[in-house]
Specification:
InterPro entries: PRC-brl_dom, PRC_barrel-like_sf. This is Photosystem reaction center subunit H. It holds the Pfam family PRC. Strand 1 and strand 2 form a beta hairpin. Strands 5-6-1-2-3-4-7 form a seven-stranded mixed beta sheet. Helices cover 19% and strands 31% of the residues. The protein has one domain: SH3 type barrels (Roll), CATH 2.30.30. The relative contact order is 0.18. The chain contains three helices and seven strands. With 122 residues, it is an alpha+beta fold. The longest helix is centred in the C-terminal third of the chain and has 11 residues. It is globular, with a radius of gyration of 14 Å.
Length: 122
Amino acid sequence: MQARSIIRGKDIEDYSVRNPQGEDLGTIKDVVIDTGEGCIAYAALSFGGFMGLGDKLFAVPWEALQYNATDDTFVLDVPKERLENAPGFDKDNWPTTAERTWLTGMYSHYGYTPYWERRMER
């Protein structure tokens, strides 16, 4: 019997995110679920700052992250510079899934089709 790859959302908080070269890109702070669509809208990645101070959060399409079971990390295959220039938000002012224009820009930045558009293609 093959093991399923499932993980609880609350358990991935503070998981490290690295690029394929092993460089640290930050940590996952949370995942945001679009309850109307029944899927994860994005992962919130903390990047920069010192000991959690001064860093901002970046929305990353969930499908852009690949889980690495060997060391319980996620791999994000984007250059650090692209992440530094990504749409970010303040820890106290999270965007909502209703803000489709903002989400469309975020998905486009990473080169992904927004999840609600992929559902229409099926």
